[in-house]
């Protein structure tokens, strides 16, 4: 199963990497006595297949250390994706994955033992580190900045910036604006995939009229219980109020209990607190609070539940429910886009990780730039042979994805007509995003706490 903490990573077999390695062997630059300085192009000959790497210069003899929360075996696709950079530039990338990453990275910064580059899973954590250690983080270099401007939605630069300075470049991504369903159940019942919010509600009403319970949900997640409910509110607010209001809300330019937020919570409640709609396979409305989010969609496989709103990374959970479950458009389960208010709008809620440099050296800037390039993305995608990793790079080759849901996610992220927004709770202060917001959404479900009281209490907790 995929937990919130490990979303975006997957177990990846790399049996096909041998062929990749053979292809890249031609990329190894011929040794030269004249090419001893990192970043010094000189007159060296560029090996066939390494043309895209010429911009990084000759980095022979240099080393870049990478520190992440991604550990074995999920780390292997990352490590293998560095091979073209190493072979074509001469640099060595040293990877260090730690389950204590979030606790140890501040310790390393404090002690002067910073990694060259860290993969940081939340913009809020990145902002805290930059502000707590103002002399540690290095502004993104020109080449990486150029790549982000060319290949990523402008919002990614905003999320990677702290107080106006660009520190974090996008790495992986995930899409949360999905509704999981059974294609065969829909086909047999004659149901169409809804294209608008009104059609989604009409479909839910039709399922009730036909004797079914349309939705199943669960927000239990250990110490992080409540976060799936915050995703519901974020996704719906992005649809009912629009991206500008969403931005104002997460930055507290408008209060948490603004009337537009109240309207969105009312819309969420029209589904999650409607006893006719939920909680198929588990119980009543209150059962949502105690149902593990990782299991919440499983009644779809038994025909009890028709729809389950959850992110792209939920794809990894189906196999644990029933071995052999196929995630595909014509498979046992698949997902459709969580519809907007109209077909003219396409808001997409998601999340992702960022790379932050803590060393100002040419090889570090070059490697950070490589991680923003189509060359890296299109090398890494096929290394995830069972899926579970997605990029927001607009120049990626989506046909390389092994998983149909990963391919669909990437297409959503790369769609120029889509408006991407990052998970708000990951951007808000910790007192809100990982505390009051989670807690009050649990109270809203478990204790049927009044909408206004929930929003007022979260607003009162804002630091």
Automatic annotation (TrEMBL):
Tree of life domain: Bacteria
Keyword Signal: yes
Protein's UniProt name: Carbohydrate ABC transporter substrate-binding protein
Keyword field: Signal, Transport
PROSITE patterns: PROKAR_LIPOPROTEIN
Signal peptide: 1-21
Species name: Actinotalea soli
Family: Belongs to the bacterial solute-binding protein 1 family.
InterPro entries (UniProt xref): Bact_solute-bd_prot1, SBP
Keyword Phosphoprotein found: no
